């Protein structure tokens, strides 16, 4: 048994257990994009690639819309679950789904109207490009509701730890899009319209696989129109807008950058940039997946006012997640030429050189992006309104656009790639300056950068943290807890009961949870003295186990079974159990 270090082992395990499935959700959209790009460039030609590039601002808008609703709902639900306030969770869930469905349907109708009235003609010169853009947008419009609502369902299923279903939905979506692109383009020769239609149908398949879960009794979150609460809409938007702000402004950045490329480089530059973005989109899910996991974990930890876990989450995300991103970026740089050859086969063609240069330079901005995106997520979760507003705007648009205005005319497409790299350094500097301003001193470590208020949570003298990895360590828990309680001036009766309760519950987890599978497990124990109460919190990554279900179970052959659990429930002021993000959380108030 040992005191939990600042890098919490359980947090790291939770983080990297959740991360692959968050990445998977983001890869679906990226995977469909690269499949479409490969079919577009090899079956149709550069005109189709231009249509994909022109559509990208709308894609950013849809993702931003989805992210605003999804992140706002996740944070609200996480905080309320962290406070054991479970009553309003169904209301937030239902409200989010209804709002996302209505807004996405309206967006689809507006896009169809814009194509019908030929308002999209102003986006590109040339009749052939205009026709391609109109056809692609029209076919993609049919899949917008499924994409937006499907992303919400994926986030909620992740909170329910339904990783198998999200995995099946993701793989099915990617396979169906690949098959449909082959059928509609190579066999039926439907051109650009078929290119978008394949993605649209695959989004509906993605949505259907996940939606089926919420028609079963296993669903933890319940959808019903009667749970809709219009008052929750504002709270979701206020909580989620800063997380989606960078994607909203990226829509405008894409429009401006596309205009600069067309003016100074031409459609060849647009085709190269679209190819680079389509591949990069497959690898951006790692930074964005890290942010998604942070959002879920931070929401619960902020609800618990657990400053130690907040710091641990940020440390794992920045250092371990950042190291993983550095390795992937290095691999992309090394494979720049082979990847470029997937799209354009002639090395002497200028578009090939522009594309290869993009794969050499663009991956360099990704490790810096991990740092700035994670801090932006923290600022959003912690309610730091200035940083959570300024950082996404500068990162999403201002830096790249301003730098591109100067660098693209001077350096061509290389100037655009360089602008993205310099943007990362500016964002890191902005985070450091913000902490410097708040603290009135230069930040020296991660804790300084976080600028957590002194009155947030409880001080170090009001809590102890213990980590248990085997049964032999459980015996010492009671003594540690009793000693802490006496230090805090708590009477001997409550101190003894606190020690007994923790020993009983921790021993129960080790006995029944640690041997249930072949995974390594641990219990993260926190004891807090606050407002005359002793609060005992146990977190473990074993199979789901609700001790309240054992309270009423009395075995006639062995009446002593579960007697310890029944005693704890009888003598404690309050006992609550939750399974949060696949982790058992038991809170006992004495």
Structure description:
The N terminus is likely disordered. The longest helix is centred in the N-terminal third of the chain and has 37 residues. The relative contact order is 0.11. Strand 4 and strand 5 form a beta hairpin. This protein has 2 domains: 439 residues, no CATH class; 130 residues, Histidine kinase-like ATPase, C-terminal domain (Heat Shock Protein 90, 2-Layer Sandwich). It is elongated. Helix 1 packs antiparallel against helix 5, helix 6 runs antiparallel to helix 7 and helix 11 runs antiparallel to helix 14. The protein is built from 21 helices and 5 strands. With 590 residues, it is α+β, with helices and mostly antiparallel strands. The protein has a 5-stranded antiparallel β-sheet, sandwiched between helices.
List the helices and strands and how they pair.
Elements: H1 9-44, H2 46-82, H3 89-116, H4 127-141, H5 144-159, H6 163-187, H7 191-211, H8 230-264, H9 267-283, H10 285-303, H11 307-334, H12 336-340, H13 350-361, H14 366-382, H15 385-411, H16 413-439, H17 446-450, E1 463-468, H18 471-487, H19 492-513, E2 523-530, E3 533-540, H20 548-551, H21 563-571, E4 574-580, E5 583-589
Antiparallel strand pairs: 1-2, 2-3, 3-5, 4-5
Helix pairs in contact: 1-2, 1-5, 1-6, 1-7, 1-9, 1-10, 2-3, 2-4, 2-5, 2-8, 2-9, 2-10, 3-4, 3-5, 3-8, 4-7, 5-7, 6-7, 8-14, 8-15, 9-13, 10-11, 10-14, 11-14, 13-16, 14-15, 14-16, 15-16, 18-19, 19-21
């Amino acid at each position: 048994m040992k005191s939990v270090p600042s890098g919490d082992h359980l947090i790291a395990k939770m983080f990297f257990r959740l991360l692959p499935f968050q990445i998977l959700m983001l890869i679906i959209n990226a995977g469909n994009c690269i499949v479409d790009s490969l079919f577009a460039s090899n079956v149709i030609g550069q005109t189709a690639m231009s249509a994909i590039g022109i559509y990208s601002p709308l894609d950013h808008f849809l993702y931003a819309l989805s992210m605003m609703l999804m992140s706002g709902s996740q944070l609200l639900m996480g905080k309320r679950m962290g406070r054991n306030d479970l009553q309003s969770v169904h209301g937030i869930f239902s409200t989010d789904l209804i709002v996302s469905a209505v807004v996405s349907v309206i967006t689809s109708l507006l896009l169809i109207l814009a194509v019908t009235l030929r308002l999209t003609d102003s986006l590109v010169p040339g009749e052939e490009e205009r026709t391609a853009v109109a056809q692609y947008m029209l076919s993609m419009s049919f899949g917008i509701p499924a994409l937006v609502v499907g992303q919400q369902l994926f986030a909620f299923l992740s909170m329910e730890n339904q990783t198998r279903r999200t995995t099946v939905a993701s793989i099915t979506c990617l396979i169906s899009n690949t098959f449909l692109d082959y059928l509609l383009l190579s066999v039926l020769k439907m051109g650009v319209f078929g290119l978008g239609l394949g993605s649209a149908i695959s989004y509906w398949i993605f949505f259907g696989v996940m939606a089926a879960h919420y028609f079963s009794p296993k669903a933890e979150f319940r959808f019903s129109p009667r749970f809709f609460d219009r008052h929750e809409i504002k709270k979701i938007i206020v909580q989620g807008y800063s997380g989606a702000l960078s994607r909203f402004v990226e829509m405008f950045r894409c429009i401006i950058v596309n205009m600069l490329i067309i003016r100074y480089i031409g459609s060849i530059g647009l085709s190269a940039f679209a190819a680079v973005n389509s591949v990069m989109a497959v690898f951006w899910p790692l930074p964005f997946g890290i942010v998604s996991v942070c959002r879920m974990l931070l929401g619960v930890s902020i609800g618990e006012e657990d400053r130690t876990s907040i710091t641990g989450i940020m440390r794992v995300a920045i250092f371990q997640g950042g190291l993983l991103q550095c390795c992937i970026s290095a691999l992309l740089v090394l494979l720049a030429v082979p990847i470029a050859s997937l799209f354009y086969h002639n090395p002497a063609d200028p578009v090939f050189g522009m594309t290869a240069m993009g794969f050499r330079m663009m991956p360099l901005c990704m490790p810096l992006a991990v740092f700035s995106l994670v801090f932006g997520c923290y600022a959003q979760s912690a309610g730091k309104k200035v940083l959570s507003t300024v950082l996404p705007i500068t990162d999403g648009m201002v830096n790249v656009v301003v730098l591109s205005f100067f660098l693209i005319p001077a350096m061509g497409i290389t100037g655009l790639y360089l602008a993205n790299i310099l943007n990362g350094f500016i964002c890191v500097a902005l985070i450091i300056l913000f902490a410097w301003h708040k603290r009135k001193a230069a930040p020296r470590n991660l804790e300084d950068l976080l600028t957590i208020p002194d009155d947030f949570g409880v001080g170090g003298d009001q809590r102890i943290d213990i980590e248990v990895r085997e049964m032999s360590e459980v015996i010492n828990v009671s003594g540690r807890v009793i000693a802490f309680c006496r230090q805090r001036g708590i009477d001997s009766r409550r101190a003894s009961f606190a020690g007994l309760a923790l020993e009983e519950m921790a021993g129960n987890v080790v006995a029944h949870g640690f041997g249930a599978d072949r995974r390594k497990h641990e219990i993260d124990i926190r004891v807090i003295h606050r407002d005359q109460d002793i609060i005992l919190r146990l977190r473990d990554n074993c199979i789901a186990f609700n001790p309240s279900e054992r309270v009423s179970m009395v075995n006639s052959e062995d009446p002593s079974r579960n007697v310890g659990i029944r005693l704890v429930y009888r003598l404690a002021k309050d006992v609550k159990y939750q399974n949060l993000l696949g982790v058992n959380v038991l809170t006992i108030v004495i």
